[in-house]
């Protein structure tokens, strides 16, 4: 009798789990909301990383110039952005700066995250550049290379290799931070999960699936940037080549 009760409880639990899954994702094609939200999250992340990286590189170059004004403006910008919570920055941009414009909330989110990412990425890149031995720059200049050639041929490649592991963590943080764009009416992955939860009054599947998708996206980003690091790091390429030869 005990075994029958256990079997019945297990069957009942699986049945309720199946019903809950159908209710949250199959009924009314609600899984399409998750797919659409995931696409929005990926798009915002990709565009923000792209524009933020370009802006970070420009900020880093300006800070390396002899101009006190350019350096001061860049330093103020970095400190101001780093000292402002991203959710507050997004709301200021959406409800104040772009309130009367026709720009979409999604584009506001990209602008906001690009500015936020650039401030942190510029610091990461600056630290990488400063970690390169100054003697290499002096040696390159002594050999007749220009300042421009010295930076892009010798200094920057080494700085990029040293900065990429920290940069990877910043990209993943940006991905996770995009979950707040619902505050400015962007229907990203997290917002779509909230919509499903508000319709079904169930939290388990929407939240668990959201967490799993964020984990998978972060894992993919980590793999891609690791592959990039292997391509640009001569030491890692040599280790990979030696391992292949031994096999």
What does the model show?
With 247 residues, the protein is mainly α. Helix content is 83%, strand content 0%. The chain has helices at residues 2-26, 31-64, 68-82, 86-97, 105-130, 134-142, 147-177, 189-200, 204-232, 234-246. The longest helix is centred in the N-terminal third of the chain and has 34 residues, at 31-64. The protein is elongated, with a radius of gyration of 24 Å.
Name its key features.
mainly alpha, MetI-like fold, 10 helices, about 250 residues
Entry summary:
The chain has a single domain (30-238), classed as MetI-like (MetI-like fold), CATH 1.10.3720.
Q: How many domain modules?
A: 1
Uncertain residue segments: none
**What is the CATH architecture term?**
Orthogonal Bundle
Q: For the record, what CATH class applies?
A: Mainly Alpha
List SSEs in N-to-C order.
HHHHHHHHHH
Mean pLDDT over all positions: 87
Helix content: over 70%
Map the helices and strands.
Elements: H1 2-26, H2 31-64, H3 68-82, H4 86-97, H5 105-130, H6 134-142, H7 147-177, H8 189-200, H9 204-232, H10 234-246
């Amino acid at each position: 009798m005990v075994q029958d009760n256990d079997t019945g409880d297990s069957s009942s639990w699986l049945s309720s789990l199946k019903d809950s899954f159908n209710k949250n994702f199959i009924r009314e094609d609600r899984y399409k909301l998750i797919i659409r939200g995931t696409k929005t999250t990926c798009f915002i992340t990709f565009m923000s990383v792209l524009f933020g990286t370009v802006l970070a590189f420009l900020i880093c170059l300006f800070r390396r110039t002899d101009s006190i004004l350019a350096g001061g403006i860049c330093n103020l910008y970095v400190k101001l952005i780093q000292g402002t919570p991203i959710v507050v920055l997004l709301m200021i941009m959406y409800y104040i700066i772009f309130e009367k414009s026709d720009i979409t909330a999604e584009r506001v989110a990209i602008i906001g995250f690009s500015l936020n990412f650039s401030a942190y990425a510029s610091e990461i890149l600056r630290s990488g550049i400063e970690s390169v031995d100054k003697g290499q720059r002096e040696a390159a200049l002594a050999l007749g290379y220009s300042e421009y050639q010295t930076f892009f041929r010798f200094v920057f490649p080494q700085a990029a290799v040293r900065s990429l592991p920290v940069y990877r963590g910043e990209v993943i943080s940006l991905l996770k931070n995009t979950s707040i764009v619902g505050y400015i009416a962007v229907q990203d992955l997290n917002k779509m999960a909230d919509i499903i939860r508000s319709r079904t009054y169930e939290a388990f599947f929407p939240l668990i699936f959201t967490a799993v998708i964020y984990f998978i996206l972060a894992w993919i980003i980590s793999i891609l940037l690791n592959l990039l690091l292997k391509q640009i790091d001569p030491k890692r390429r040599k280790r990979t080549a030696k391992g292949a030869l031994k096999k």
